[in-house]
């Protein structure tokens, strides 16, 4: 399994950047996790929009879905230009019906609801879900393919259930919107110390900090998380690719 960071900023994309988006590839199948602002432009450095096989969304905040409409129109235009490809399935939860309805567009994309207490099969990936602590319904994902495990926390304040959910993962993509001296609970986000604590207690093999803040020295996030977690830690940066 290969994981590539497309965008990693929280809230909105920093200059020339993108908010949440991650490309997972395995056995020729290309799955995009979240599709925030700026993701479509950055994705084209790696693959073209019409080459995606599926999209999976954690929740409907704009920094995670802003480029869904752009993706739909990209595939529509490529169809007008003569390219032939199937309708793209976009998986999302149905707890915000107005937003879920927007996932279907002409014959270009088809919204499909995942059931959070059931395992979802998307190509070669098996995905299980955990409801996070966030102001809107949001779901973390444990993604398995050929024995390799990636856990994506999506947006959430720290919750004990994450430890078992993330147990022994090969890679933890953990949100880290706050520095260690800050408390993100009221806004539904984690800080660096909590991210490190989760990684250590879940015994994950490596930690990637993502959903990053727009201020301060980001290297401090790594040093703060390393006080809790003894394994390898990196910041999520555009085009960072990890092969498992």
Features:
single chain; 244 residues; alpha/beta; Metallo-beta-lactamase, Chain A; seven-stranded mixed β-sheet; 7 helices
| Highest CATH level, the class | Alpha Beta
CATH architecture: 4-Layer Sandwich
Strand arrangement within the widest β-sheet reads: 6-5-4-3-2-1-14
- CATH third-tier fold name: Metallo-beta-lactamase, Chain A
Number of E strands = 14
Radius of gyration: 17 Å
| Oligomerization state | single chain
Q: Tell me the distance between the termini.
A: 5 Å
Helix content: 10-25%
Q: State the low-pLDDT regions, or none.
A: none
* Mean of all residue-level pLDDT scores: 98
Bin the strand percentage: 25-35%
CATH homologous superfamily designation: Ribonuclease Z/Hydroxyacylglutathione hydrolase-like
| Shape call | globular
Largest sheet: 7 strands, mixed
- Number of self-contained structural domains: 1
- Broad structural category: alpha/beta
Strand and helix order: EEEHEHHEHEEEEEHEHEHEE
Put simply, the count of helices is: 7
């Amino acid at each position: 399994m290969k994981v590539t960071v497309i965008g990693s900023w929280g809230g909105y994309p920093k200059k020339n950047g993108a908010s949440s988006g991650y490309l997972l590839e395995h056995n020729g199948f290309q799955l995009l996790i979240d599709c925030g602002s700026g993701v479509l432009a950055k994705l084209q450095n790696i693959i073209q929009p019409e080459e995606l096989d599926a999209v999976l969304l954690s929740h409907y905040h704009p920094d995670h879905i802003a480029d869904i409409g752009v993706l739909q129109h990209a595939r529509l235009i490529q169809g007008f230009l003569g390219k032939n490809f199937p309708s793209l399935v976009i998986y999302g939860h149905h707890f915000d019906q107005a937003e879920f309805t927007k996932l279907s567009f002409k014959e270009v994309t088809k919204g499909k609801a995942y059931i959070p207490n059931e395992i979802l099969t998307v190509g070669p990936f098996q995905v299980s879900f955990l409801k996070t602590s966030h102001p809107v319904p949001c779901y973390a994902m444990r993604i398995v393919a050929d024995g390799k495990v990636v856990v994506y926390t999506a947006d959430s304040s720290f919750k004990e259930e994450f430890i078992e959910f993330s147990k022994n993962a090969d890679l933890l993509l953990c949100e880290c919107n706050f520095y260690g001296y800050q408390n993100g609970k009221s806004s539904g986000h984690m800080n660096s110390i909590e991210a490190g604590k989760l990684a250590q207690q879940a015994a994950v093999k490596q930690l990637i900090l993502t959903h990053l803040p727009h201020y301060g020295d980001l290297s401090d996030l790594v040093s703060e998380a390393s006080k809790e977690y003894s394994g390898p830690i990196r910041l999520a940066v555009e085009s960072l690719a990890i092969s498992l």
